[in-house]
Amino acid sequence: MKERYLFSTSLLWIGLAFIYIPMIIMVFYSFNASRLVTVWGGFSLHWYAGLLDNTQLMNAVKRSLQIAFYTATAAVALGTLAAFVMTRIRRFRGRTLFSGMVTAPLVMPEVITGLSLLLLFVAMAQLIGWPEQRGMLTIWIAHTTFSTAYVAVVVSSRLRELDQSVEEAAMDLGAPPWKTFLLITVPMIAPSILAGWLLAFTLSLDDLVLASFVSGPGATTLPMEVFSSVRLGVKPEINAVASLILLVVSVFTLLVWLVVRSAEKRNRPQPGE
Question: What is the pTM of this model?
Fold first, then answer.
């Protein structure tokens, strides 16, 4: 038993090291004074200061953050409603088809999804003249399409665990369904909604394939900019901007974790209650 525990623990630490050591190396070389990424030339903040002059890269960062924020917000709204329908409405015509369509992006290759959306946007532009050109709007629609599925899965798993007696009691006391959903259900599933928002934000910020299909001139996202730059060799500016994003995401995730933890402590029944 002890040997099995040691083996599992060793595999866990090896897996964590495989994930995080490259990130640590990337952050370390972001302070490299040398233009050669793999050659250490001394400690310097030159590349962080140079980001302010790299307007193309900073515009890509700003554009990606905007798209990720809008995508996460829309995906949470649509995914939460879809999860509520799948878990609370047991029987309706087309329920199996609806559930399959909601969760289909989870198993659909992004290349197929991106090509399908590209053909859709081209056909719509020819038929109704919208969208006139592909850009941030089409990327937002594409990202929302596949992020909604992840939010729906996360929220539906939480909805299935809830005790519906509280919701039923609220409706028995005269609360309409929409008020019960907003004042009773939503606060109880708030941690899963927040988790879904963070997941959708990360997926949108990280996406390269879909954005490559549905983007247009002047709508380059950060992954696209990094990918096009890396093909010619990794630049120190890439390490610097990636380190800053890693720092911001880590701090934001820590703050969210602290908020969720404090909320769970407040909702946890105290001894003697």
Answer: 0.86
